Amino acid sequence: MSDPCGLIIAAPRSGSGKTTITLGLLAALRRRGLVLAPAKTGPDYIDPAFLGRATGREAINLDPWAMPPEQIRALATQHATGADALVVEGVMGLFDAAADGQGSTADLAEMLGLPVIFVVDADRQSQSVAALVHGFAHWRPGVRIAGLVLNRVASARHERMLVAALRPTGIPLLGAIPRRDEFVLPERHLGLVLPGEVGGFETFLDTAAEAVADFIDLEALLSLAAPVVAEQALPKTLSPLGQRMSIARDAAFAFLYPHLLDGWRAQGAELSFFSPLADEAPAADADAVFLPGGYPELHGAALAAATVFHAGLRAARDRDALIYGECGGFMVLGEALVDKSGISHAMAGLLPVTTRIDRPKRVLGYRRLLHDSALPWPAALHGHEFHYSSAKQTGLPPLFEALDAEGIRQQPMGGQLGRVMGSYAHVIAAP
């Protein structure tokens, strides 16, 4: 079997159409019978769900800020093995990174040795596009822009002007997508909604696939894929929270990193799943319960009425199981959740915390986390925080001491009460 190959889809900035074109590309290639290994750069749960729907295969996260390079390469190698190509969607602009300058799509391209397909929004510019592309192409010698895709081209005349301007750059132009208003996915307070919540998503995907197939030279694009810089060792991951882990998974608890689940299984943990929204309890023999993030604030009434779920959590606590909640899971472990309308919903009551989202304030960024807790993980961790709700708690020891990407100390995060604990941080990896 040949070495796995791949490429990265990137753009000069957010809003260039990178996600839509990546989805169309994956769907178009899948229609041709290719097996794609989809991945997303950075700490994202929503885009991987879309990438997975487009390919019929689970997408993984490759995070060059939070993960060590050897973990990135091992995950990429493992994921791409047996596929025709690893296709990685970038994050923000090609060189955009955390506040410390680390973690960009360009960093990932260098770590994996992969070429970049550069998606440029041509709306409201013509010849200036050449200066933009030239600047990006020569900004960092270790990053190779191998091909260009123009998006939102206004007319045939506009396309001729762009093509002529770009010719001196020497970078192959793979295609030009006309401006199409139907290429818009709806958004919510945490970004894009999940694919199952998008009315007509399959129609959207078909439209995107047809546009990509009509306007992009797919054979030329595939020919640019390069071998992944491989790592044959198994991906290093965090230890499982217990030997028998029961994990909440439904529309309210949808934010799970595949690399953690795969790593826990590889270490011999038995994973089972349950739905709090269906009023299911965690497994009665679980020695650890994990409530991941998601959208509990959209399901306050249903979660408040889930008496079997609440009783199951209390039973797990009483038998001294480790109970850990991240972001939305942390909110549900508290006493109450105040939703966007100001209505208070009773939660599990395992931590003396009240969270509310009726006074939204966005908190976003990478976190360096330090802890001394029952979590079976290294004392130093890397994670990410993204939420609009806030938590009020009194007399509860914090779970994490926290610094941002630049090393600036933040407010302590979360809380712990015996072996029940949680915070707003989504833990990704150990540094």
Level-1 CATH class name of the largest domain = Alpha Beta
Reported by name, the CATH topology of the largest domain is Rossmann fold
Main structural class: alpha/beta
Largest sheet: 8 strands, mixed
CATH architecture of the largest domain: 3-Layer(aba) Sandwich
Strand content of the residues, in percent?
25-35%
Number of strands: 24
Q: How confident overall, as mean pLDDT?
A: 94
Describe this structure in words.
The chain has helices at 18-31, 46-55, 69-80, 105-112, 128-139, 156-166, 201-215, 218-223, 258-266, 300-304, 307-318, 328-333; strands at residues 5-10, 36-41, 60-62, 85-89, 116-121, 145-153, 173-178, 187-188, 191-192, 226-227, 244-248, 270-274, 288-291, 322-326, 336-338, 344-346, 353-356, 363-370, 380-387, 390-393, 401-404, 415-417, 420-423, 426-429. The chain folds into two domains: 5-227, P-loop containing nucleotide triphosphate hydrolases (Rossmann fold); 244-429, Rossmann fold (3-Layer(aba) Sandwich), CATH 3.40.50.880. α1 (18-31) crosses α7. By secondary structure, it is of the alpha/beta class. The mean pLDDT is 94. The strands form five sheets. Strands 1, 2, 3, 4, 5, 6, 7 and 10 form an eight-stranded mixed β-sheet that branches. A six-stranded mixed β-sheet has the order 12-11-13-14-23-22, with helices on both faces. A four-stranded mixed β-sheet has the order 16-15-17-20. It contains twelve helices and 24 strands.
